Amino acid sequence: MLENKEQSRTSLSELGEFGLIDHLTGQIRLKHKSSVKGVGDDCAVLKPGEHVLVTTDLLIEGVHFDLSYTPLKHLGYKAVVVNLSDVYAMNGQPKQITVSIAVSNRFTLEALEELYAGIHLACEAYGVDLVGGDTTSSTKGLLISITAIGEAKKEDIVYRSGAKKNDLVVVTGDLGAAYLGLQVLEREKQVFMVNPNSQPDLENYNYLVERQLKPEARKDVIDLLKKLEVKPTSMMDISDGLSSELLHICKQSGVGCVIYENKIPLDPQVIATCEEFNLVGTTVAMNGGEDYELLFTIDQKDFDKIKGNPNLTVIGYITEKAEGSTLITRSEQSIPIEAQGWNALKNG
Ligand code: ADP
Ligand code: MG
Which of 35, 76, 188, 196 could join 119 in a cystine, given CB atoms 3.0 to 4.6 angstroms apart? Predict the structure, then answer.
């Protein structure tokens, strides 16, 4: 029994850096013609055919993730997906990623295999090539930095700055679930710390927990919009909560907006769990985070093309800048939209 346990805990120093990189990246088969050379030389070599989109995220243990309830495979998957989401938010297609990690000696080879299993799974699911990275040690904890490289035709790229008066404001999917998933996991962690024999009871929260631990990027929506021949006038992904993202679009486009509370899409599990946690669904959707849905604006003439699609909800419209950014509540009160953002909510 003990022996078995030892066998499945290979220390990283046994492989050395190059052995480790080989082990984690050896089985990669490049999918894209534009990936000329991947892992194994001083640089990856790419030959893109279009405009190139580049985005990076840095994730730090204890700040951005908590390994006491985040399986490493999920972490790897999520770390890739959040980067790809940024490429889709420009109306582009991600093609390659690089992955850099810093690990302390607390991590075993088996732990990194799990992390990379998630990374490879996301690469398969979204059709991107892992073409390089860096591996180094840290004194404490795990750091992951992923860079995604995408492509888009110049005329297809959608910026945050293109919204104009009378455009419709659209969101994909539903909002607030990932934030509530985090609250549920944090609560279970507290229970576990008091009673280590307790078993987490997550049955009623499966959608919320999945949205927190295994988010997906909306490639499907980008492909759908292309098929429908709808080019958004502005777009971004919702990583910090709807309020802050709306304000980004309004600021960068030099416009205002009117959003209707009763249009904001919430999953039934979000509504039920909000009651239990004594939270307001709208607040969670507006100020939660990590939904990785898309927020975009379209010209009114495109409304018929998206009408009735269950993935797309019109939540309001764009106004002149002077009118500010307003939420119309269910009781028809107008309240100004403020950026609270997800960190503010988390800490306070
Ligand atoms: P250098 O010393 O030139 O930075 P490295 O030894 O760090 O080269 O990397 C060797 C190869 O392995 C390079 O192609 C690099 O992109 C790749 N690589 C290193 N670390 C990782 C990693 N964590 N994930 C994926 N590829 C990696
Ligand atoms: Mg290196």
Answer: 76
pTM: 0.94
Helix (H) or strand (E) holding 142: strand 142-152
Query: Cα(137) to centroid of ligand 2, in Å?
Result: 12
- 19-55 b/e with 16+ CB inside 10 Å = b? ebbeebbeebebebebbeebbeeeebebebebeebeb
**Can you give the pLDDT at residue 74?**
97
Q: How do beta strands 142-152 and 51-60 pair? A: antiparallel
The closest of 116, 165, 177, 131 to 33, measured between CA atoms, is 131
The helix/strand count (H/E) of the chain reads as 12, 13
Low-confidence ranges of the chain (pLDDT < 50): 1-6, 342-348
What is the structure's pLDDT at 341? Answer: 53
Report the b/e string of 158-193 with b at 16+ CB within 10 A. Answer: bbbebbeeebbbbbbbbbbbbbbbbbbbeebeeeee
Kindly report, residue by residue over 194-230, the tens digit of the pLDDT: 888 888 778 899 999 999 999 999 999 999 999 999 9
Give yes or no for residue 21 CB within 6 A of ligand 1.
yes
Residue for token pair 């420009």: 90
- Report the pLDDT value the prediction gives residue 330, as an integer from 0 to 100: 93
Relative to the alpha carbon of 20, which ligand is closest? 1
- Residue 271: how many other CB atoms lie within 10 Å: 12
- Is residue 321 classed as helix, strand or coil in its secondary structure? helix
Residues with a beta carbon under 5 angstroms from ion ligand 2: 134
